[in-house]
Predict the 3D structure of the following.
Amino acid sequence: MKDKAYENYYRRKAKRLDLQLIKSRSRLWSIHDQGGWMIVDPYNGNAVVKGADFDLTIEEAVKFLEEYEIKLKSS
């Protein structure tokens, strides 16, 4: 799967889980914006669920979404 298609697939997956997967738009790395990914809950005032400083890699975000989905299905 190509990078953009891979990212969009997981953005849609996050939306199905009532979350939002966001990529940093910053061009410069800083301590509070590390140029990665963040997962937020748009239905809870955009509360950060994971990656508060955009410090997730796409692989870490994917792993979190998959574990979150399993957790929801089991409860």
Notes: DSSP finds two helices and three strands in the chain. The radius of gyration is 12 Å.
